[in-house]
Amino acid sequence: MPPRRILIVAACFVILSAITLSIHQVGRERPELLGKLVPSKNNKGQDGEQEVKEAPGQPCAKDVGWLGELDIQYPIRYAEREIIVRPDPKLRRESLTKLDEMLFPKAKELVQGQDSHLELRDCKPPLVLDVPVFPTEPVNASNIMFGMATTLARLEDSRHHIARWLAHTGAKLFVVVLKPEKGDAPTSEQIAIKQSVLRDLGMDVTLVTPLSKDESFTESVFSLVKVMYTHRANETEWFTLMDDDTFFPSMQSLLAMLGKHHSSEQYWVGAVSEMWWSVGRYGMMAFGGAGIFLSRALAAVLDDEYETCKTEMHPAAGGDERVM
């Protein structure tokens, strides 16, 4: 199996940083050009980390005209690094890979209107990272139902990313289509066209309008419990609330994790936010960014108590809090 090349671009703002990833295939016919990342003698550092070393950087030229297509504020600081992912069927990768130097070289400042031809003084060679082979056999996730609340525009931006993990898995996705902040609510014809486009990508997607015209965004998120439970199939065991930019890297791993729990019992499965100020404000709860998984038994309870939860919950509570 050929390795994959990941281009990592860091466009650092005065305060914020943004990293963009793109993946494409790379052959093995010219390994001398890959700037191979050399593991240490035992391939492990302290605490089970994978330790690596790499060569120094060289001057190079880059075309950064594509940055003009992004809605970013100048000046920015630009640096890039490539990582070549090379599958190894015999490898069991550690959770952490340790570098003996900075991942990105020294960044160069860019101002708006500057020539797209950029001369960098310190371009690092690509890193080659050996990883386990990703499972390629078909997966049956028909026991999982996913739900999100978003606009057609945001759904369009996310459709190819969603298709990467959802398409041809048997899992169902229900989308509550929201009215955009500016403009009119989408027509039934527009919704039907978008649903057809998504299904053409191999996804079992159903687009629905909000249960009530005057419901807030958080109420629409919570309504996904009612929407999904109403459309449940006999094989549906798990109901998932997620954001429109949630990405599941491995459906096989997700099924294995959920398989440790019995959907006939009341389970609320998820992860806390990586932003600790959110945890401090909202508490130790499952956040929608990582996906909130409700067992069939718990979803049945929430469905029965839906109107009570909707009317008695504090108006400022978010969709994730309403589930909690």
Description:
The chain is of the alpha/beta class and 324 residues long. Helix content is 24%, strand content 28%. It contains 8 helices and 16 strands. The strands form 4 sheets. A 6-stranded mixed sheet has the order 13-12-11-14-16-15, with helices on both faces. Helix 2 (188-200) links the parallel strand 12 (172-177) and strand 13. The longest helix has 15 residues, at 152-166. The protein starts with a strand and ends with a helix. Residues 1-48 have low confidence and may be disordered.
The total strand number stands at 16
Our count of helices gives 8
List low-pLDDT spans: 1-48
Q: Would you tell me the overall average pLDDT?
A: 78
Beta fraction of the residues? 25-35%
Q: From the alpha-carbon coordinates, what is the Rg to the nearest angstrom?
A: 23 Å
N- and C-termini, Cα separation: 44 Å
Label the structural class.
alpha/beta
State the order of secondary-structure elements, H for helix, E for strand: EEEEEEEEEEEHEHEHEHEHEHHH
Which geometry do the CA atoms define?
Answer: globular
In spatial order, strands of the major sheet run 13-12-11-14-16-15
Q: Could you estimate the helical fraction of the residues in percent?
A: 10-25%
Q: How does the major sheet shape up?
A: 6 strands, mixed
Short précis:
By secondary structure, the chain is α/β, with parallel strands linked by helices. Helices cover 24% and strands 28% of the residues.
